[in-house]
Amino acid sequence: MRTLIYLLIGILFGITMFKSEAASWFRIYEMFRFESFHMYGIIGTAVGMGVLIIQIIKRFKITSFYGDSIVFTPKNKGVSRYLFGGLIFGLGWALAGACPGPMFTLFGAGFTSILVVILGSIFGTFLYGLVKDKLPH
Amino acid sequence: MNAIFDAWHWSISGLMIALVMFLLLMVGKNFGMSSNLRTFCTLCGAGNRSDFFKFDWKSQQWNLVVVLGTIIGGYIGSEFLSTDLAVAIHPDTIEHLNSLGFKSAGSSYLPNELFDSAVFLDLKGLVLLSIGGLFIGFGSRYAGGCTSGHAISGLSNLQWPSLVAVIGFFIGGLTMVHFIFPLIF
Questions:
Q1: Domain residue spans in chain B?
Q2: From the CA of A12, how many Å to the nearest CA of chain B?
Q3: CB spacing of B73 vs A23 below 8 angstroms
Q4: Predicted interface score ipTM higher than 0.90
């Protein structure tokens, strides 16, 4: 039953990524050229609603559908990892025009070439695991 | 019905993303897609090479199911919920892309020049997509999250590290589009 719920949430996410065009390379390029409000509107609305949702959950101590308390694990302190990691991610995001959610959406939409990006990103994650202890965090 | 079959308005799209994050919180999970890339590594046996991949992948099984859903969602979105796949980007963007050699700008969902299945036989395209993927995987794990984990979940929870990460995303993205694209296209 829970598995089915995760699947449905994923389907909802996949449809949203495709129909919002957030999975389109063109929209990412346009965003980084500041030539349209589209992507900023999407992220802005999501974050605005997200802040509201999380504040309500915290304020009213809302529990999950299963009655457990909802915990938010704070991110580790530090600047280097977020800035450098973010920068490297941004280079890839702009070049491939897809991030780790939409790349799967695109595969489902029949763009088989995105497999190159997916395999590259798995390999990139592997490389990080190999060298992580040598990097500033 | 056009509201469904045309490209979705940014406000609807944003609300739907917030809904996805909310639903995941309500089933006791966190919205973050790049974690799956680490799980794939573990499934491929990467635990033998680095302790970073030694974790109980079953604790992330739910997220793999979300990935499966994301794939199915892409199929449904393109196959049953779209009449025209062309992305109506700004005319200035189209003009600029044309000058870089992207003739498909404004008439397709992805640039054919990069994503046509002929890319498997095109060395430059293969290299560019591989490097793009490599940076996405390396960077998101280094930063501890991607667009979903930092830009959406993290900013929604008003976490400073996520703001730093998002600033990093933009420094990287702007550098790529404004300084590196003119060199490679």
A1: 1-83, 116-185
A2: 6
A3: no
A4: yes
